[in-house]
What does this fold into?
Amino acid sequence: MKNIYLLPGDGIGQEIMAEAVKVLDWMQSRGLVSLRMSEGLIGGTAYDRTGTPLPEATVSAAKSADAVLLGAVGGTQWEALDYSVRPERGLLGIRKALDLYCNLRPAQVFPQLANASTLKPEVVSGIDIMVVRELSSGIYFGEPRGVETLPDGRQKGLNSLVYYTDEIQRVARRAFEIARKRQKRLCSVDKANVLECTELWRKTVIAMAPDYPDVALSHMYVDNAAMQLIRNPRQFDVILTTNMFGDILSDEASMLTGSIGMLPSASLGDQSALYEPIHGSAPDIAGQGVANPLAMILSVAMMFRYTLDQPALAERIERAVHLVLDAGVRTADIWEPGMTKVGTAAMGDAVVAALTA
Ligand code: NAD
It folds into this structure.
């Protein structure tokens, strides 16, 4: 029996989570898995009910779960709140509390959606990139930080880029191991020519390479990586990088695919794992029943692969998504003339029906 903790969050998070649960219920009803599911609060919804975007009860339930499934957080109604209680603090907080140091963001082009990219189909077709981003350290967490007013009246803003060797090693180890199960090519991205901290990053990754003689390790400066992702994205298999560079590059890589509603992610620690779509709470379409639930459903597939250790069930979900796309079923965000436009619930139902196929 595995404990799965559901955090639908805000906006379309609620709607897409319901579709993920349909897939999990189907798996349960067929006796393919044994799951205990419970649900909690995070983000703006949690703030409204408890005064904090990350209640203590959420942290403790998440810590004791085998995996957390998260919808999305945020919304315009919470934008005026103090930074410390904004919905997004809930997300950063839970990643830190669970020590989720390794973020996996696959960027894959579905052949059925190759026209959705803003790049030419011949550049993007066949892309299969896994961005491994360090998630719990680096400049987003480094101290000292803040804004202070100086005696002369000027203000000074400060953030610190800090990495310790063990923090680099643990995420690099994951990246090497993932590369091993894929095309065995790992590109570590840094700015070692300018930032001493990322020079340490590069040296640390190089020192680990002898443990993985079957993986071809290369290095790239982040500015070049940003260019190469657009110029020739197929050169990449696994990209390993720091928290901030990974934030930016994984968004860039995902946009090669052209469809934000299709992209899942996993955030892994040594004890915990959290799975969520890469998109936000989409306040512009929330409550309308039109959101694409496929990124959420594909996040469930990642959970089957990385936490439940059931790669065959992960593939089954992924195949069901392909079948639905092959059949021309589309939510509004990926719709093209000639296709069948459906809402969130109908898309979830179509995936469940395709699971049986
Ligand atoms: P967003 O990802 O919510 O939306 C960007 C655009 O993509 C919108 O037009 C939206 O309608 C569309 N979109 C996103 N997901 C979709 C889906 N599944 N189906 C169809 N269309 C979809 O990003 P944003 O508008 O910049 O941010 C909205 C809120 O979400 C903000 O409060 C932001 O802080 C938050 N956010 C949260 C997360 C997260 O929870 N992980 C990530 C990014 C943004």
In short: Residues 106-132+162-258 form a domain with the Isopropylmalate Dehydrogenase fold (CATH 3.40.718.10).
